[in-house]
Amino acid sequence: MGRNEKKESATNMKEFSSRDLGASTHLLKSSLGTGILAMPSAIKNGGLVFGGIGTIVIGIICAHCVHILVRTSHILCRRTKTPQMTYAETAYAAFFCGPKSVKPWANVSKIFVNVALCATYVGGSCVYIVFIATSLKQVTDFRTGRDIDVRLYIVSLIPALVLLGQVRNLKYLVPFSMLANIFMITGFGITLYYVFSNVKSVENVKLSAPIEHLPHFFATVIFAIEGIGVVMPVANNMKNPQHFLGCPSVLNITMTIVVALYAVMGIFGYLTYGEAVEASITLNVPTEEILGQVVKLLIAAAVLFTYGLQYFVPLEIICNSIKPLIFNHNYAVMTETLVRLGMVIITVIVAVVVPKLDLFISLVGAICFSILGLSIPAVIETVSCWENHLGSFKWRLWKNSLILLFALLALGFGTWVSVLDIIKYYK
């Protein structure tokens, strides 16, 4: 490499570091949430060796699906001469610009993606509620010496959730997000202290799990790693969108960090607590210690403060969808307020119906994230490349067919096993 090439490479790396750090931070924040705390439970359901390798493989598949979604969106933007597209608009453009036989499905695809986005975020919000309530229950029950039903803790969260759900401008959520980041980082650091100070021998854990536990493993890992809902907004708001893909890129660097952190937390968390590991690793932190109580309350507060941001996307989609249906615009504000209130109450009701964290995570991962994060990107790329762009021997078609098959297996078996476990829970 010549001097000029080296200088140009160094300049590009400097430009990448300064301009794209914010995008990487947003992508990391969207992927590093409650999901990473569930990774030891996922490894328990997969076994130490199979789970560790499986986490890396699933991470690669998820990153690839993000890659093809963003790349297809950029191609469709050039084809339609559109500056940028959302996830739903990308699906619409793929079908509209695709073969004649699929053009009538363009509007349906856009609606389907928006519904999938709403369902995914609503499901994630329900997981947040159950997590907060379970953490509060552990601390409060220990301090009071009473065993209070977790559903009462869920209901007690309604006032805070309603207020967060009524926020209609993201700038008002910034202070909550800042506090959430501080609380999460602090709680995460203390949790790592407990994990790495009590690591047990490999002899105390399973290297591979029974086959009936694997659907829970796949569903939990998909739930944990997937953050595809925020990918398009992050990519669209970058100063140089081309830096999102390629090598080095925001996507490759961020997903490498995410998958590595998830694998490390999952493996060492499982080694520390073995078969006794809970749905969230923080629930294993000793409640009788003051530091353990602080961890649970800090992360519970962080998740609560993130609820407004998590629920912002589906509420915006739903409210924008119903605005054209309001005949008298004098009632628009009141209607939106009631819709936001109703959606929050729905998440509380669902959380009350299924108040067990591991079952909820597995169910949401199997149904929502397997569709939104795996199936839809594979279909979008296939449709957009159908005419003369499938590659030699139509390799993109075969590749996306395998991704779709994997997603459907995760959807089918994950949902089936989760529903059976929910039925057993009520028995």
Automatic annotation (TrEMBL):
UniProt cross-references to InterPro entries, sorted A to Z: AA_transpt_TM
Keyword Isomerase carried by entry: no
Keywords of this entry: Membrane, Transmembrane, Transmembrane helix
Transmembrane residue ranges: 21-43, 49-70, 111-136, 148-165, 172-196, 216-238, 250-273, 293-313, 333-354, 360-380, 401-423
One Gene Ontology cellular component: vacuolar membrane
Main location: membrane
Key word Cytoplasm present: no
Pfam families on file: Aa_trans
Membrane topology: Multi-pass membrane protein
Coiled-coil residue spans: none
Location of the Amino acid transporter transmembrane domain: 23-419
GO molecular function, one term: L-amino acid transmembrane transporter activity
Localisation per UniProt entry: Membrane
UniProt protein name: Proton-coupled amino acid transporter 1
Organism for this UniProt entry: Camponotus floridanus
